[in-house]
Design goal:
It contains 3 helices and 16 strands. The radius of gyration is 24 Å and the shape is elongated. Helix 1 packs antiparallel against helix 2 and helix 2 runs antiparallel to helix 3.
């Protein structure tokens, strides 16, 4: 029996390491495909030169084919799946789970994995921490916490006449019965609250494991409303930023109004 070469041992360990990482971290279809391809490429040399295989060409071809099939199966098992079924009313309290959409273009650096990007109009907050929030007068009016399997979302939805019409605590939704505001979960990735006129006062959408988009109108006594549209982040009628702005959060408030 021929002695295994050291390089083959290292390549085998590399293939195993990639396979383990593939099941530990958040995945996209592209990352799964690249990892499966990397495992195949790394293991070609050890398989081709294995002592029982290397002296017989049909065996080499057969086992490379089996390696390719194995890598395809790994990719199949690791492929991210997302439910298209809409939550029922009893499921409105569940985690927001990521969709499978691309992150919108932005001038900021992109760091998937342990970063979370929150799109607030033309402002993008990046954080490594578990929570990012908007505060007004020292109180959270919106906060997003990244947890295993999705995000927890908390917010106070206040009407223009300073009445609390909805409270969301870690995705548990409570609507003030004396108001005509409505809530909806059209899918597992979003949460929407509309006012009596049908206008959205809150729209949270979890695009992918690293990106959340928040739209809405956030009122606070004594201050103009914070208005978040797809194009801008505004304080009343004034834009807070003139262009796309990126900033990081150490776990405290992303935006604070005092």
């Amino acid at each position: 029996m021929a002695k295994q070469k050291p390089i083959d041992s290292w390549l085998q360990l590399g293939g195993i390491a990639i396979g383990i990482l593939l099941f530990l971290f958040a995945k996209t279809p592209l990352s799964v495909a690249l990892c499966a391809l990397a495992i195949f490429v790394i293991l070609i040399h050890p398989v081709w030169n294995f002592w029982w295989i290397s002296n017989y060409r049909p065996r080499q071809i057969l086992f490379l084919f089996l390696l390719a099939v194995g890598c395809c199966l790994i990719g199949y098992k690791a492929w991210p799946t997302f439910s298209n079924k809409s939550p029922t009313p009893m499921e409105l309290h569940g985690l927001l789970i990521p969709a499978n959409e691309f992150t919108p273009p932005n001038p900021c650096f992109s760091a998937p994995g342990n970063f979370l990007a929150i799109y607030l109009g033309n402002a993008i907050a990046f954080t490594r921490q578990q929570q990012v929030s908007i505060k007004a007068q020292g109180q959270d009016i919106l906060s997003i916490s990244k947890v295993e399997g999705g995000i927890d979302f908390s917010a106070r939805v206040i009407s223009a006449d300073n009445q609390v019409v909805a409270q969301i605590n870690n995705n548990e939704l409570f609507i003030n019965p004396s108001n005509y505001f409505r809530s909806a979960r059209p899918n597992w990735h979003s949460l929407i609250i509309t006012d009596p006129q049908g206008e959205e006062v809150l729209n949270v959408y979890y695009l992918n494991p690293w990106t959340v988009r928040v739209l809405g109108r956030f009122y606070s006594p004594g201050h103009p409303p914070i208005i978040v549209t797809k194009e801008a982040l505004m304080l009343g009628t004034d834009a807070i930023f003139t262009g796309t702005t990126c900033f990081g959060s150490s776990g405290g408030a992303a935006i604070a109004i005092n």
